[in-house]
Amino acid sequence: MKTDTSWQKSSKWYGGIVGEKGHFFHQAIIIPNSLKLLKIKPESSLLDVACGSGVLARHIPQQTKYLGVDISSGLIEMAKKMDKNKNHKYTVGDVTEKLRADGMFDNATIILALQNIKEPEKVVENVAEKLKDGGKFLIVLNHPCFRIPRQSGWEIDKGNKLQYRRVSRYMNPMEIPVEMHPGKRDGQFTWSYHYPLSDYSEYLYKSGFLIEKIEEWSSKKKSVGKVADMENRAREEFPMFMAILAVKRPKI
To answer: Which CATH superfamily is domain 8-39+46-248 in?
Structure first.
C-alpha cells in the first residue's frame, strides 16, 4: 500500500501556524528569497505543487495566473478561503501522479514539501510535463546536508566553546517519521524523506532540467544570553534551507 504522506490530519494545526502571510521563516527568508530567484512577472503563470494553504500565492503579482495543487483537501479549503483572487485556482491532487491542469506554465514551485514526499522523482517528472521550454522550477528544501531528522543536530564543543552541527548519516535515502507535536505523544506524525543532493540533481537532469542556481539560506533568528555569540555564529555557518532553481531544456 502507498504510504499516506498527506498532511490532511494535521491541516488545521499547520494552517493555523502558517496563517495568511506565513510563519516567521516564510516571511523572513522563504518568500522574499523565492521571489528574487523567480522574478515572477504579472503576465506570467505559476504552478505551485504541494502548495499547502497557498501562502506563496498571496505574495505574487495580482495579475499572475496561479494554480495551487495539494493532496490535503483541508489545506486547499483554507487556501480558497484566504485567497479570493480570480486569477488563482486551487485543486486537490496527488503531485506524484500526472497533474490535471489546463495549459502550460512559465514557472513552477515546490516550497518546503518535496522532503515530505516519498517519490520526489515523480513530482519532478510531472512538473516538467506542465512547464514551458525555458520555464523555471524552484525547489526549496530543508537543507538536505544539515537538516536530517534524527540524523543531525546541534552539539557543543566545550573545550573550544563552539557549537557545531553533527551529521550521522547522509548518502543513503531514508524514510523518517516526525512527531507533529513533540512531548504530547498524541500519535500524530508525518514522514520526512531524505535524499542526498546528488539524487535531486539526477531527478532534475532525467526530467529535462538544468540547474541554473543553488542558494543556501541561513536562519535569521538571533540568540541572547551568555552563549549568544556561539549560537549565532553556528546558525550563520550552517544554512537551514537550500533552494534549487532549474530551467527546463528545450527539446531538440
So the answer is: Vaccinia Virus protein VP39 (3.40.50.150)
